[in-house]
Amino acid sequence: xxxxxxxxxIALFIDKLRSFRNIAxxxxxxxxxxxxxxxxxxxxxxxxxxxxxxxLAKKLGFNAEFVIMELETEKMKQTQSVNNFxxxxxxxxxxxxxxxxxxxxxxHLIEGNNLLLFQHSKNIFDYKLGNTSEYVTINRTKKLIDLxxxxxKKALSTSELLxxxxxxxxxxxxEINVIAEKLASYxxxxxxxxxxxxxxxxxxxxxxxxxxxxxxxxxENMLYYALEGIKYSTSMRSxxxxxxxxxxxxxxxxxxxxxxxxxxxxxxxxxxxxxxGNSERISKYKYLFKNxxxxxxxxxxxx
Length: 303
Prior knowledge:
The protein is mainly alpha-helical. The protein contains 16 helices and 2 strands. α13 runs antiparallel to α14.
């Protein structure tokens, strides 16, 4: 991270503290720096010196060390808040989404990736509420991430990955093959994904790729990415989407006439659900097994 990026984060956090203490910006900056210079810090256009930081912190009743330490805590809290908002939208929990969006002040979001995911989440929320059309939402999303430039990058953030994945859910989006090819390239070539919390996102990418190739009746690639997802999730000891990945592997194996492998993946899928004690999903998958494969699977629950 460059110095002016760090300065921007600190300046945004300081301004949030200033706002919470009901101090006018003019009074806060008096005899320290100009308003113009303050805005340069908040825009990431200039490096905030320790001397200036300490003076600003003392105006708030703190010292510079306290501000720096609390900044990391605040960033973690903001990340959690934005993730909760995003997850509530993906989970179609409208009431929770309406509640959570009111608790996030976009002006005070410190990290660029949190701001990006929050803006994307608001776009998707507007779309799900019927306030915008799919066409408008697609164009907003493309503009938000500068899609043409993003797909040329060799390092992606978690927020950028989640936004790319969202294009799979727009029926009128015409360039989905480009997104799929790029995501596959990122995975196959081990392109860097910048995040400290990758496990669920990478599993989701692999699940979406397997689903994409299923729709295109490319069952070899469907199986490949399902198995990559299974291998990754089990290596990370994560159960996230693992039942879906086992089911996709079974469905692809069925289409490839690999019946023994199909049955093995179905067994593993159901065993996982019994281990989790998820009776609703057990019933759902048993129905799918019977309806699609004419398999009436009965296993002894794992104790």
